[in-house]
## 1
Amino acid sequence: MENILELNQVSKEYNDFSLKEVSFSLKRGYIMGFIGPNGSGKSTTIRCIMDLAHIDAGEVKLFGTTYRENMKNLKKRIGFVYDTDVFFEDLSAEKNKKIISSFYDSWDDESFYRYAKDFQVPLDKPIKALSKGTKMKFSLAVALSHQAELIILDEPTSGLDPVFRKELLDILLDVIQDESKAIFFSTHITTDLEQVADYITFILDGKIIASEETETLLENYVLVKGPKSLIGSIKDLQPIMVKESPLGFEAFLKSDSLNELELDFDWKVEQPSLEELMYYLVKSSR
Ligand SMILES: Nc1ncnc2c1ncn2[C@@H]1O[C@H](COP(=O)(O)OP(=O)(O)OP(=O)(O)O)[C@@H](O)[C@H]1O
């Protein structure tokens, strides 16, 4: 199936930071989570995808084409949901909808009212009176009502309570059911991604260090916990990182460093969570 989003060797230089030959791709019908520590380049990458930041080298392809070839049309096919307030705060959600809808030929009022109802967005209230979570839902209702095929969200779940977060994640899962759309979203909440992301792209200091299926990514690594007496044996396997405590150790290593014999040792081998994987990969790089 065609890539709906494709970045090829995208580079962007700021004074103190650069995106370094960022490449990854996403197909229709899937959700990709975009993770990385603070300041690693997530928002910058998203701004490059949205053509809000000029790229110095490389190429961003959307729906198989580039902004250079097709600027006006491309933007309309993307639903961009982000944290900063982009609406007319003093106007009601209904009036905001009226203004925004006039920009889109493909606007579908019926969908909008259905989503607003499903998401319980009060349309008569001014935007400034809505909670953060409700604003996010309004934003998503807008994105879905102009028939966006690619939904890009920059930290949509940050600051939302667990109930709102779960609702939002269910909505995202629902959106990709017909397999014609794709979702790309950045977040620090890795447990959200374990629930919904088919793929994970991991950025660190402006460089992509992994972009693959969530399951495969997690299966690539193991956490081994064992007593002090086995510390020499674990170190022989050249782990990525070992944390020692008075009682024993916790080691993070590539799964293929363990062979069958070593599985028989008196230590516990676990698959790391996404949060543990992120912690160890970030720590070991510093
Ligand atoms: N317009 C700009 N001019 C100069 N530097 C910038 C600009 N925009 C971002 N940066 C720098 O780029 C780096 C990456 O920032 P970015 O916002 O992309 O990170 P992030 O991964 O989204 O971080 P966070 O998780 O904290 O939101 C930061 O050091 C930031 O200061």
Note: The chain is about 35% helix and 30% strand.
## 2
Amino acid sequence: MFAPGPVTVRPPATSANLGPGFDAFGLALELRDEVTVEVIPAGLEVTVEGEGAGSVPLDDTHLVVRSLREAFDRLGVQPPGLRVHCVNRIPHGRGLGSSSAAICAGVMGARAVVADGELRMDAYGALDLATELEGHPDNVAPCLVGGFTTAWMDADGQVDVLRSEPDESVSAIVFVPSTPLSTHVARGLLPKEVPHADAAFNAGRAGLLALALTSAQLDPERRRELLYAGTADRLHQDYRAPAMEPSAALIGRLRAAGHPAVVSGAGPSVLAFGVAGAAALRASEYARSGNPAVGTPFVAAVLPVAARGVVVDGVRAGQRDR
Ligand SMILES: Nc1ncnc2c1ncn2[C@@H]1O[C@H](COP(=O)(O)OP(=O)(O)OP(=O)(O)O)[C@@H](O)[C@H]1O
Ligand SMILES: N[C@@H](CCO)C(=O)O
């Protein structure tokens, strides 16, 4: 019933919203956690290296373990014992999808260690469960399938996703501050209602952003201009700015220079799109100073778009990626 050896799953970081696509758009980024799951005769052994080591719990409340347990419930099997080893590279609470990566690692890890897991839970089942655990689909969707995704729920609450490939000239530059902000807190800053004009504004910009990211054969400068216009948002970033002033200031500086910059997910990281062949963004100039008024520096990194979602390396060669 269970795989005879360990299975390693590697979920990518993700950036949600991308400006106007609140709770819908997401982008998978090539920065991966690594979670190894093994069924053992009894007990629970959890070890963590990297991000969160020493602070995340090592019991059943660990997010990967919780997600594994929920997935085993859906799969209709419970392992006698579990060994889970996490090598974490995605920073926690920074808007780069760490919680979705943990959830998708658990869901896909459980599916991989059950011999007929893919029959018991199809791709929609995995997306459904991961969305339920995360609370919204915009990070788990690209984490599972890679690329640039639009995720939505139908009237029955069924989640679906459309995946597309950003043009290869597009890259993501992330600016990560040293202090976290929980998604829960950031969601609490949003109003219950927004003006109709702001909703209409975002709908137009979201449509534009999808085209600016994916249309082939755009002149690089034109693509940058379209990405700039297409990353404008009125539904969440301003409301959340008081909780991430250095990030808001950095976005202001980047946009004043014509760079398409947004809050990554619920923040406080900042994501700016670069376009090969268009005016370059010298990340170190912006990262070094942060917001002079507040003095918080950012760590900047260029992250390629991840074409693949969670990669599963397992014992059943032939059915798994190695
Ligand atoms: N690999 C992990 N192992 C265990 N717990 C994790 C892991 N990754 C994230 N978490 C939990 O999730 C919390 C961060 O989730 P949160 O949704 O606030 O931020 P995020 O997912 O990094 O950002 P965003 O959702 O905006 O992209 C951590 O503080 C931790 O409790
Ligand atoms: N759409 C989510 C992404 C963060 O998980 C938010 O902005 O709250």
Note: The CA atoms of residues 136 and 219 lie 35 Å apart.
